[in-house]
Amino acid sequence: MHDGLSFVGRRNTIAELTGRLDQALSGRGSLVLVAGEAGIGKTTLVEHFAAVAGERDVRVLWGGCWPGQGQSPYWPFVQVLRSCVADWGWDRVSGSVGGDARYLSRLLPEREADPGGEDESTRFRLFDTLTRVLVGRAAEEPLVVVLEDLHWADVGSLRYLEFLGHQLRQAGLLVIGTYRDVDAEDPALTERLPQLRRFGPRLDITGLDRDEVGLLMRSITATRPDADLVTRVHRSSGGNPLFAAEVARLLGAGGSGEDIPAAVEHVIDRRLALLGPDEVALLSTAAVLGAEFDQVELADLANLAVTDVRGLLSESLRRRVLVAGDGGRFRFLHALLRDALYRRLDLAGRESLHRRAGEVILARSTDQGAVASRVAHHFSRGNGPRQAVEYDVLAGKHAMRSLAFEDAVRHFARAAEIVAQGEGPQRCEILMSLALARWRAGNGKLAAQTYQEAFDLAKAIGDVRALGLAALGCCVRDELWANEPKLIANLECALDALEDKDPALRARLLARLSRELVLVPGTEARRSVLVAEAEQVARAVDDPAALAEVLGTMHNAHWTPDNARDRLRTAVEIMELGRRAGD
Predict the structure, then answer these.
(1) What pLDDT, in 10s, does the model give residues 357-411?
(2) Taking the C-alpha atoms of 372, 377, 383 and 384 in order, what is their torsion angle to the nearest 10 degrees?
(3) Which tens digit of pLDDT belongs to each residue from 4-42?
(4) What is the DSSP track for 176-187?
(5) How does strand 202-204 pair with strand 173-180?
(6) What structural domains and CATH numbers belong to the chain?
């Protein structure tokens, strides 16, 4: 409940948060997780605490997660970083981290820079750079970061939160995260909770007691409620503030205290019945856009003028179904309100609106990559498979550039699932992207399996270049000791099919085959021939990256204590090639 009601109860929890703030101000930060069911008052609690902290001249930065699968990578931290830039200015933020500011362009695409590669080491630099910004900001002025609705967080954001947690004990920074401890939409948070709880306490928010429910009802109705009514509301709600507040609003609107709804969903339905049918229909349309929406997008989606949208939503704002934000944005007072409105749409209506929403977002965007995740989400919900595949692939590529490898896996996997087996070339390309994303995300075993699937498909459709790339990808785990005959067979098959059509790729395959044969008895002479041909072919093409890969593979495959000088010369040449290739 974000509607400025009198704050009741939670004294012990506020005292715990205040104590954690005191520790942060003395240089010992922590991560506090605030958990509870929907409507229990997690946001109200942290908003009240933020007001308390503000009275002590503590700056509070907010970041929230987006329900569904349409949010941008690292979305809560994008919001936090943008607040830092708004407060400090870009020159000051970038100056605090020097040349590493270029990594922040992964989170802020509006800041053009060359952020380097798309691998785990680059992601580490991004995490480290963002942490230096936040810790540096906290060193100059007291700082609290609030992250709401972590049950909707993307995996990348949770991984960064864990990274940040390790730095908090030596930093004057307090981080507070809220989440629902039941009905989480994604197991990602559940899997990472044990690690996150190492960095501070979990505060479990439970229902208000009977007297607190009475105080809450009184603050809404401006009258003292009957004691028996308070008892019945407390018993029915279990002390859930959202439920109790909604009952109080119904009573304030002339409802009877004799008929208390049995569940919060029912009381929300009764509250919506107080609105006109045109307004409820518009709110249901808005629910398709999410828990927060832009008035211009809603106007386009509903085929209305923006002024008409504002007029229709005026009663919803008055009755606190919606809350106005900045820049013409609105949000539902609670996700349960949005869910109730979304459920009022039949399946055909939902699908039609989701397809239309995807088109509206695209029409208003100047950067399709930045909105691809939202667009893919709407097209997938709207039963638009062709468009969903197109924008899932685009969103996956955008996630890779943002170093959100887990998000990329989700998008590429959904695209691969949609694409029919008969669409061979497109499916093969998606599988290759999915395999790379899985490798970057740290799942080498599953990446190798996906590369093998792409290899088999490339062989079936006769795509020799994809066949060669997939054969190399199958070796992604780089476990020389495994000596897998399947990998050797793949490389030999790819070389036979490729012939001399792609010299750079052929050189890479030859070098890799020599490496895979290291533990195969009696292959010394063959490996020498492969190495010589690989180097000869690689040097004949103007491709520094391919030559560097070939030399690196040869260096690792033919390591002995007796050839240290040769290996040193090779390493120096690889460094020079990397410089020439900009890698």
Answers:
(1) 999 999 988 888 888 989 999 998 988 888 899 999 999 999 998 899 999 999 9
(2) 0
(3) 445 777 888 999 999 999 999 999 999 999 998 877 889
(4) EEEEESSS-S-H
(5) unpaired
(6) 11-204 (3.40.50.300), 210-272 (no CATH), 277-345 (1.10.10.10), 502-583 (no CATH)
